[in-house]
């Protein structure tokens, strides 16, 4: 069974951010998760990092999304 995009996004966040995002409406969580997936797909630097450490790439992408779209 595939893991939900929102849950994957939340798992990439540090605990304080994770809890803050969990309190948002699901539509906002989904929008952030979609931006996170786009960041992972489109950023070439993250491709390189992903080869070395997928969790580190996911964390970096999540941090970038929250930096651009503060909640």
From TrEMBL:
Organism domain of life: Bacteria
Protein name: Uncharacterized protein
Organism: Streptomyces thermoviolaceus subsp. thermoviolaceus
Organism lineage: Bacteria, Bacillati, Actinomycetota, Actinomycetes, Kitasatosporales
